[in-house]
Amino acid sequence: MSRIDISTRRGFLEGAFGAGALVLATRILPEPAQAAALADKAVWSPSVYLGLEADGTVILVVHRSEMGTGIRSVLPSVLADELEADLAKVRIEQALGDKKYGSQNTDGSCSIRDFYDAFRQAGATARLMLERAAAAQWHVPAAECKARLHAVVHTPSGRSLAYSSLVQAASALPVPGKDEIRLKSPSEFRYIGKELPIWDQQAIVAGSASFGQDARVPGMVYASIERSPVFGGTVKSFNDAETLKVKGVRQTVQLDHFKPPHLFQALGGVAVIADNTWSAMQGRKRLQVQWEPGPNAAFDSAEFKASLQQTVRKPQKVVRNIGNVDQALASAAKTHEADYYCPLLAHASMEPPAAVAEFHAGKDGGQGKDGKVTVWAPVQDPQSVQDSVGAALGIPPANVTCHVTLLGGGFGRKSKPDFAVEAALLSRKTGKPVKVVWSREEDLRFDYYHTTGACYLKGALDAKGNLAALLHRSAFPTIGSTFEAGAESAMDIELGMNLIDPPLDIPHFRAENGPARNHVRIGWLRSVANVYHGFALSSFMDEMAHLAGRDPVEFLLSTLGPGRKLDFADLGGKYWNYNRTLADFPYDTARIRRVVELAAEKSGWANKKPSKGRALGIAALHTFLTSVAAVVEVEVDASGNVTIPRVDYAVDCGAVINPDRVRAQFEGAAVFGTSIAMLGEITA
Asked: pLDDT tens digits for 355-365?
């Protein structure tokens, strides 16, 4: 069910599983390296609920957010497969924000990696309990009973019992140990690896699905907020006389500015409270605000770009070194150097931020820690909402209830719940439920931008035209500055996104990184630091191929070298590998080689030679434990207009749960990547 029914969902966790239901709370404990993936969530104690009602209906509680990736459909299909559940008899409920689910942060491309095994275990455990319940009823060995599509069959006799007739008996059985559970073999999969439609497809097409912009509660008012045009600016004074004349406007409320580090705090400003969105926005246009611009008033993106490019043209901190790059460059047959730059980029998800919050004052009238607030919002991490709203209101996170709606896109933006904080603060100040709605213009102007980045690369060719040495130097404001005011040095995770870890088989390599100070809100966006590091590395490889007079695909394969597993021993164990061990998730260059070969083959690379106005480009990277190669065909007409008639991807992401969702990810990525490359620059 996609529509969020507020009156029923509030009591969901208490009332969803009634008397006679089998409720399985599956303890999901990650590997030690997986636990380290969420440094801000030190304790992993998730309980994923699987319920079977007396009529056989299976209730699956999804604890990750649906933003178009299909996770709300894919994770349940994994559990349903092992359970042998009929999807027509499954009901999916969205989890509230609660630490008992473990991490709910739908970010970092890790939902399947973190929970695939655990969801299989949950389904297989319930399946075994149902089989044992049937065996007891028939007085036969449990080994003779097999679950098949919402029923248990006694294989020797062909008798069957529907799940509905086994729920009560199964609920009385002890939960079997992990060593007793048998997972399906791939040949037995009913849903895993199959093309399945997304769960909410019909509701989305029919317009009945609930997104953040659809959230409503009785007595709700609307807010539109005038924020400082400069990051860190504060309100000096304001005049709302003309604003209050607008029909439907009720009042104005000043929001305090954030205190460094800004984290996911509200930016501050002046909010116009009205009976509807239109009145709030019209009233805001008439506000007269005097701003104290603060320390970032002089920031100019063009000047900052120049400063970053100057930084990378000078020696910086060495973050990885193999061989002797300087000597190799000095003795090379040919050398080449190039600069690359990525501007600030906005997420621009289809649905701009929006949130509804309803504050309930405690005994002290809401100024102490006994107040409570309920939030409805399209967020990637409801626990972050609890933490951020709780901090802003001075109440425990447990006093914040967060209902997650469907997300009209996320891309990392909606993992930052500042808009939910705004709604909560305004609800407490007004004494009413408040809906904060961002316009598209606000979304672009006040985003947590993908940081700007500059790269400088210099390479050497030997006498045979092989890449013998590479220097890769980068500088960019770190995402760490979001959490630590004044931070200027890149984090290890940013360095480990194709700066220090190119999969190249060359004798001499050095990576350097320079400091950069942040002047705007920044946060993670799809691929994060891979955006500028990967762009620079892939572009430079193509340029070196042309310098060598070699085909770019052949040159790339040659430089990748033979397939091998990289150990990064020279880094002393500091390579983060997306917070997974290299033993469990090896960095195998054979995977990259294969996707390069396949992308070239499927695109017809060998038969499509460059001609006037038309050419092919290839790029290949290993990111988020996935190897990807893309061949892009580009046409340029006499007027300079660019057309991209075709993109070919080859992807090795490991086991594929739903091929349609993987395909959709890359179809969207082609459009997304083209958009930010050609039209995405944000300037200040």
From this structure: 999 999 988 76
